[in-house]
């Protein structure tokens, strides 16, 4: 018997003129946790998608336990005990939790074509409990849930087949600290059972910590394999981009710096079931950070401030405009931008063109004297931002869903930076992007700060808020439990003690 559970030889995959994978050779041992890393567009997700039965390879072969493996679809991969959690959401929003867990396999719970809800709920509960995954309300429709809860459902579905190979595509960046620890423990269990996993993450330090070995992709091809215990983050980064990258990309100053002018004042804000007595001010040129565990309420803050939530009581006051924000249309009309955590579902028109996505927040500014918006003005704005942000695309009429995650996020942020913003709300702005795009996003934030734009930075990554924020609001159970300034005890340990 071979030590390898998976062998890939000469795998190629292209989409039109674009090669996603080039002559990929790859092996995975039983009981091995393998990291897969590379810049956005390097072919990582495409490789996993072929293993998971989502795409067929153009050429090349795959072997599982030494036997030819040619999955026709995801269910065929399931039959071979291979499952995947996608980077973008892979749930059906108009179905309840329990049906999503067994999606494609619900026949076992049917009698005379009628679904036995009690039986499927019982089976779903057993799976959540078996793997130690937090369980959302089983009868609730998934489309109403936050991205983190939906990821828990996808993870439970993947584990419910007891996979010999678990494929995780950018899962950790959707999770708060406590659920990341849960996932790390799940990977340890997978390894202890002699089963394997392939993990994609753009967090190089995290990958070195949780993976045994790392495969680096560049331009669709494998450029190297390293043992995690024998490498460094800087070495992996240089393999990814083909040049030396050292140090970090956060702010280098260690002091609070912002203007006296208050841009936003939030007083005694309450949202049923989510926020309780939230009070804070944001100043011009300030980056105000929010962090907390799952269900702490940090993501609800961004939604409420932009006017997306039903506020029970309290006040959200935009000071320069003398405006009490109650609706998202008021925020849009008064130069407030918002980048939600779930980019594809809540922010962008994925099937629309790059031009339309760049232009949408600026429709008022693009209007002519009689309210007409010319295609020429949309084209001019979009081309300017594509060049300014170095968006890799084949033209502004290409659909956004044809782009890599990093280029999608450049558009998601850049369309707001094309406006004369007063306040910018950023919820996990670097989720799913590589180190190069991360550095670029942080440089955009530093530039916005220098230009006097007030920013609210909400993040599940402690290093991100500690690296960028002037002040940090630590939340727990919908309340702000402590405010920490950049010039005080601004460390992960200090924040974690408050969070937990």
Structure description:
The protein has 500 residues and is α/β, with parallel strands linked by helices. Helix content is 34%, strand content 26%. The mean pLDDT is 90. Helix 6 links the parallel strand 9 and strand 10. It is globular and about 70 Å long. It starts with a strand and ends with a helix. It has helices spanning 44-51, 74-79, 97-101, 117-131, 147-159, 177-192, 204-210, 233-241, 298-306, 328-333, 343-347, 354-359, 363-366, 375-389, 405-417, 435-450, 462-468, 492-499, and strands at 4-15, 18-29, 33-37, 59-64, 67-68, 82-85, 110-111, 114-115, 165-169, 196-200, 213-218, 221-227, 262-271, 275-283, 287-292, 313-318, 323-324, 336-339, 423-427, 454-458, 471-476, 479-485. It is built from 18 helices and 22 strands. The strands form 5 sheets. It has a 6-stranded mixed sheet, sandwiched between helices. Strands 18-19-20-15-21-22 form a 6-stranded mixed sheet, with helices on both faces.
Key terms for this structure?
single chain; alpha/beta; six-stranded mixed β-sheet; 22 strands; 34% helix; globular
Content of β-strand: 25-35%
Rounded mean pLDDT is 90
CA-based gyration radius: 23 Å
- Based on secondary structure, the structural category is alpha/beta
- Which strand order do you get reading across the main beta sheet? 6-9-10-3-11-12
Taking pLDDT < 50 over at least 5 consecutive residues as the criterion, the unreliable ranges are none
The best one-word shape is: globular
Helical run tally: 18
Beta-strand segment tally: 22
- The residue fraction in helices comes out at 25-40%
